[in-house]
């Protein structure tokens, strides 16, 4: 009987070692796959962030260009308005009216 118990204990230990090694192998395999998916996700995320940063730069540049265009429009309007006032006053002078030039 002692030999039968001894054989049962050895079989139980061998089964435990077999299942433990299978569990370790499965855990390592799953860990490798998870790490691979994580790296892929990290690269995709980095690419999306880079794309968004590039879009932000373009949008900022367009905003600066629009503001500069608006400023140039205001300056041009001011210059044209001043010339119109000067022309009107010059006509008044030609007709004999008194005038003062205001810039």
Q: Gist?
A:
This protein has one helix at 2-94.
Description:
This protein is an all-alpha fold and 103 residues long. The chain has one domain. 90% of the residues lie in helices and 0% in strands. The protein contains one helix and no strands. It has one helix at residues 2-94. The longest helix has 93 residues, at 2-94. The model has no long low-confidence stretch (mean pLDDT 85).
Summarize the helices and strands and which ones pair or pack.
Blueprint: H1 2-94
Structural class, judged by helices and strands? mainly alpha
Q: Calculate the mean pLDDT score and round it.
A: 85
What's the total count of β strands?
Answer: 0
SSE arrangement, N to C: H
Q: Count of helices?
A: 1
> Which outline best applies?
rod-shaped
Biggest sheet layout = none
Number of domains: 1
Q: Can you tell me the residue ranges where pLDDT is under 50 for at least 5 consecutive residues? A: none
Q: How many angstroms separate the termini?
A: 121 Å
Helix fraction bin? over 70%
How large, in whole angstroms, is the Cα Rg?
A: 43 Å
Task: Tell me what portion of residues adopts beta-strand conformation.
Answer: under 5%
